[in-house]
Amino acid sequence: MPRTAPSPALAPATMRAVSQDGPGGPDVLKLVRAERPEPGRGEVLVRVRAAGVNPADWKTRERGVFADGGAPPFVLGFDVAGTVAAVGAGVTLFAPGDEVFGMPRFPHPAGAYAEYVTAPARHFAPRPRGLDAVAAGALPLAALTAWQALVDTAGVRPGQRVLVHAAAGGVGHLAVQIAKARGAHVIGTASAAKHELLRALGADDCVDYRTQDVADAVRDVDVVLDGVGGATWTDSLRVLRPGGTLVSILPPDDGFPARRAEAEGKRAVFMLVEPDHQGLREVATLVESGRLRVLVDAVFPLEQAARAHELGEKGRTTGKIVLTVDT
Length: 327
Hints:
- The protein has helices at residues 55-63, 133-138, 140-153, 170-181, 195-201, 214-217, 231-239, 258-263, 277-288, 305-313; strands at 14-20, 30-35, 43-53, 74-75, 80-87, 99-102, 116-120, 124-126, 161-164, 185-189, 205-207, 221-226, 240-248, 267-270, 296-301, 320-324.
- It is α/β, with parallel strands linked by helices.
- It has two domains: 8-139 and 294-324, Quinone Oxidoreductase, Chain A, domain 1; 142-270, NAD(P)-binding Rossmann-like Domain (Rossmann fold), CATH 3.40.50.720.
- Strands 3, 5, 6, 7, 8, 15 and 16 form a seven-stranded mixed beta sheet that branches. Strands 11-10-9-12-13-14 form a six-stranded parallel beta sheet, with helices on both faces.
- Helix 7 links the parallel strand 12 and strand 13.
């Protein structure tokens, strides 16, 4: 029997959410009761089971404003894994009860640190088979960033040499695996203690950025994925062969070498990740085939979002941090 969408009125009128009233440190994050959103035309209402924590979250929290100017009070969070609770008019992609994951509305407020979120249906995809909600909640933003940078932007092909900076981080450890799945020779930068892990994920070569000069240790690279910025941009350009591409996932400043790259017959671009139904399905395929696994460093309940931010801002995690939402 086909499933039909229940009325959103059957869900609670309010929900728990982590909100902030102004800029500041992790202590500005407070658990509140908020009005539950309702799905509009073409949207789904998702009961959140897990929400990934990303650098974009604590950077937004600290400055107290979203990139598009959205002012507090607001609810942070872009990564979602959960269950479709209701669908809006015109939605045929999902039905209530479907398990989904996604990166809704980025870079605009999505409100994932909450019990419910709404977003266009195609900002989600079916949760990969065999993957639990916590792992699925860790995937979307980081995996889509890696996929869109390496595949859509740089067009990584078999046999190419790919350098991934911060390769043990949230985006980096997924980028290593995606590049390897594309048939590339993968080089990752990380502290020496993390090299064994990187090799287990598929890295062919590892560079200890603390003791080695990347520009001396690496050469003839076709693609560089960089989430560090600053002097790393310059070093990355030096190791690129003519025709190669540097993809930065950090917004460029005056030091970004786009013009120098062009003069040298190379390319340096900034890429901002976008909601991407097809990209999520590609990521899910890699997960289901065993070629991609997400590392979860720590898990906190929703009400401990401040602790999650404190840990993330130390910059020492391997993989992702995830918030769980009680059922």
